[in-house]
Design a protein that fits this description.
By secondary structure, this protein is of the alpha+beta class. The chain contains four helices and seven strands; from the N terminus they run H-E-H-H-E-E-H-E-E-E-E.
Length: about 150
Amino acid sequence: MKRILTTTLTCLTLAAAPAFAADTRLELPLQELLDSPEAKAAGLDGSVRFYLAGQKTPAVVSRFGEDVTNKKTNGVGKSDAESCRWVALSALKALQEGAKDRGANAVIDIVSYFKKNEYRSATNYECHAGGIMSGVAFKATYAKVK
């Protein structure tokens, strides 16, 4: 009986390992996400504008410091892209709230910051999707722009 239980547990562990170990890196367009109906439904109200690092911004009047967001979401039952969009909206919502708290009207120089590794793009953000969880991390600067 002990041998059967050990063999069964070993098989289950090996079968489950790929589901837990999956880590798909996606690069997705930020502007497409910001323009989506889901962005408005998530509470992005347009009062704060978002600019990726390398993206042209209006003139910066003042800066209010940097911040980092690190959000995760359940990826079960969702496509990688769907869970990535969902978690990115959560991260952007946190940045919007931080901007409002500081009197900023923009979040600029946004870089993806997954596991403290910067990914810079003027068009895309980075997301990591696994078998169970998806995650997005952003590092950005709060600013007042013209």
